[in-house]
Write the structure tokens for this entry.
Amino acid sequence: MADNSNYTKKIYVLLFFLSVVASLFVAKLLSAFLLPVIFSIFLAFVFLPIIVKITQKTKLNWTVTSILIVIIFIALCSFIFYFLYISASTFAKEYPKYDQKFKDVLERFSESLHLNFNENLSFGQNIWEMFNISSYVQDAAITLSSGIITFIKSFFLVLIFLALILIEAKHFKNKINLLAQRKNKTQVLVISKRIAEEVVRYISIKFFISLATGTFVFVGLKIIGLDFAILWAFLAFILNFIPTFGSLFSVLITSAFALMQLFPSWDKIIFVLVYMTAVNCTIGNLLEPKIVGSNLGISTFIVVLGLTLFGWIWGFVGMIVAVPILVIIKIICENIPLLHPIALFLSDEEDKTLANLSTLD
């Protein structure tokens, strides 16, 4: 009997592994549909505690409160989009004053690299002629336009799904009670509660870490006198949701603009590069993985691995939702005896995870 039991366990583990692999491929294939759904679910996790508090204190109708929250979210997103539009428009208007500096920098580099530089042409025209980038520009324009259209469609889908989830959320507990068997009802409710708490905690941590990064970037760049400091701070805030690569991209873009604007003041240019690197490395690459890991009980290695995997599957949004998905997987594994080894593998605090396993078996 013991041999049969061990054999059955191995079969279950193998089936679980195969189902995970198959799920990942399906997730990549159906990304256009799944991304808006998953993103709206995680947004709902953030807004649900707010709706509960508002309805309890003000006695407002749940549906009305949910719609108001979605409207406020739309207004906030509209403000951000408008801010980005204004920043881009301002940069476009003031570009001529940067063009000569850009040309000076390009001339220095072209002399060092023995490239043909025409002082009668603008910076953009020289780049076009030097590197023959017409095909790349056309491909980038097509990719950008299709990406914007996809983003707009996905954004509207997220708003629709978010509104529906928030309105229906008040019935979720009753539905769980009806669907779960009586002996499993308490366990299912415990899992649901823990998932909600841990996801909200992670999103809160991520938001404030990103906000701290953006704030430090803004203060440092404002002191050194770099133009559009608030734009680079916002960029650092957004890109901080992509670990390592996002920080690197933020440093490179901001430093490149500092080179163009502040040239030939090498002390200021080096300050921007060192300061941006220090802020992003300290907060994004050292503190963040440790804080996120220790608060969620997930190994730092697993966090990085999950971010890489879901980034490959879903790109930028995949990196945003990777850790919440890992949290959900860990909580579910802690509550299913057959999957306890996976919960221990994901954990960075074995004693705490073992305590959870023992209380829920």
In short: DSSP finds 13 helices and no strands in the chain. The two ends are 22 Å apart (CA to CA). The mean pLDDT is 77.
